[in-house]
Design goal:
252 residues, alpha+beta, six-stranded antiparallel beta sheet, 7 helices
Length: 252
């Protein structure tokens, strides 16, 4: 008569589900990188992968408890599922920590008193997917003070028209998609662009305005994040990247 030792089913199924959840998450990232889809399908796929990984983690814990209390086999498989599911869930855990610590940068501008207004032309609205932002950002909260102090206007020692051209060139260099360009009687002007996050290609809408000053031109930037503080990518970092690119164009 052949005797077989019982195994924990939860622990045995955990690694399979953990790997499947990890592959689903990776598939969502690849879809964002190479597929012509909007952000919501990508979010749905990635969240599904995270949910599967969370279930796999729960099954792994249950399996380990059963192995410890009842002496069943399957501890190695349960540990396998535990490790893979923890690796898959490390990303959302890191994102949650970053969101918790970071100041709200949903709608941030270098000019808090008279920020650049997003245009309402057909091309500009279409570039924003139909979104029409408010004329000015909401009232800044104290938690935004640090971010606001980092996002200051850029003053250039050149004519407004030249500064606007340099800003357009810099935006294209950064990979932004320009959706609307408008000149102004004083020689300055404004343009809008769509900037995307590196990994998931989520959009952030940028308005850049150039106005004349006594010594040259002032460049102001406003960045609107579609998903608020949950958007990957910092609005302040977008502004700083544009400043560096404009200065590089100016020096070149």
């Amino acid at each position: 008569m052949r005797l077989t030792e019982s195994r924990t089913r939860a622990g045995g199924f955990s690694p399979k589900l953990a790997w499947f959840g990890l592959f689903v998450t990776i598939g969502g990232v690849l879809t964002a990188q190479f597929g012509e889809v909007g952000p919501w399908p990508v979010i749905a796929v990635i969240c599904a992968g995270w949910a599967l990984s969370a279930i796999a983690l729960l099954l792994a814990i249950i399996g380990l408890v059963v192995v410890w209390r009842q002496g069943l086999r399957g501890g190695v498989a349960a540990m396998h599922g535990l490790v893979v599911s923890c690796l898959a869930l490390a990303w959302p855990a890191i994102l949650a920590g970053q969101i918790w610590r970071a100041p709200d940068q949903t709608d941030i501008s270098t000019d808090t008193f008279s920020p650049p207004a997003f245009a309402t032309t057909a091309g500009a609205v279409a570039g924003r997917g139909g979104l029409i932002p408010p004329l000015a950002p909401p009232v800044q909260r104290p938690s935004q003070d640090q971010a606001r102090l980092m996002a200051l206007p850029l003053f250039l020692d050149q004519q407004p028209a030249e500064a606007l051209k340099a800003a357009e060139t810099a935006a294209r260099t950064l990979g932004w998609t320009l959706t609307d360009i408008a000149g102004a009687p004083d020689g300055g002007g404004q343009f809008e662009a769509v900037a995307r996050s590196d990994l998931l290609r989520f959009p952030q809408y940028v308005a850049v305005r150039v106005r004349p000053t006594a010594d040259g031109a002032q460049l102001d930037v406003r960045v609107l994040s579609v998903f608020g503080r949950y958007s990957p990518g910092s609005g302040v970092q977008r502004i700083l990247n544009l400043h560096e690119a404009v200065q590089a164009v100016d020096e070149g």
